[in-house]
Each structure stands twice: as C-alpha cells, then as structure tokens.
Design brief:
The chain is built from 5 helices and no strands. With 180 residues, it is mainly α. The chain folds into 2 domains: 48 residues; 97 residues, Substrate Binding Domain Of Dnak, Chain:A, Domain 2. Helix 4 runs antiparallel to helix 5. The radius of gyration is 31 Å and the shape is rod-shaped. The two termini are 25 Å apart. The relative contact order is 0.15. Keywords: Membrane, Transmembrane, Transmembrane helix.
Length: 180
Amino acid sequence: MSKKLPKRYVNEKAVKRALGIDSFRNVSKDKIMEFASLIPYMDKDVAIAIINQFPVYADFGKATIEQYTQACSNILEKNKESQMAVINGYQTILDALAKRIEKENISEIERKSITEDMIAVADKIAEADLQNKNFLERMGTKLLWAVGIGFAAIGAGIGIHSAFGGGDSLPQVSGDEEDR
C-alpha cells in the first residue's frame, strides 16, 4: 500500500503567490509567520533559499536577542544596586561595632559579645551574597528556558501544522499546477 505524499512548493514563485507577495525583501512579520507555516510544504532547498532573502527575519531574531540582553542588563543593574545597599547596611553595622570594640574601657565579656555580633553580621553578608548568586543563577536559567520554549513553540507549531494541517492540499495556492 503506497502512501500518497502531500503536494509541495518546489519553487519561489509558488511560495510568493501563496503568500500574496511580489518579493521576499520587505515582508512583514505576519508574512514571515505565514511563511513559517508553509515550510513543511516546501522543498528544503526552496525554503533555505527563501530564508536567505529575509533580512527582516534575521533582524527579528537580532531584535529579540537584543531585547532579552537589555532585560538582563536592567535586572542585573537593579540587582547590583540592591545588593550594594544590603552590603552597605551591614558595613555600617560592622563599622559601629568596630568603634565600640576599640574603646579601652570595655570588659572582656563586652568585647566577646561585640566580636560575636561582628561574626553574625559577616555571616549575614555571606548569606546575602549566596542568595544573590542563587538569584542570578535562577534568572539565567529562566531566561534560557524562555528563549528555548519560544523557539520550541515555533518549531512545534510548524511541526503540528505539517503533521495535521493541509494533508494533500497546499494552503493558499491557486493557479497552475506547474508551479508546484
């Protein structure tokens, strides 16, 4: 039993007609998404040749990466400011404790208590640093997952469209059989 293969776009002219455009040079983002949904119906070489003509497609990818980079930069800058405020607060406490311990007229018990307080503050600084590192790691992981899920969703959409959409007919094509 032979399985009938779906019809395919075998040249750029057929794809342009399906998209309702004259050129691939200045297409809108909507047309790029329509093109992406047609990829499963195209010969591989035709799809690659067309993608190479999409300056907007490359610009869209660059813009997305730049937006994520800017978001990361903003988050890191705010995190740095917040972390410095925490460290400066603890440093103020350490400075005050250092002034108290330098006094000559304090007992050994007070000196020991101040030293223990200084150690506790140092531990809090270390804990704040560890929490900050964990935050940065989680942020990086979440952004990586977001980008990965975005690309996976696009790929899954194309794959689902290929598996279930269209069957034996090509979407949005009318005209001569010679272009297919």
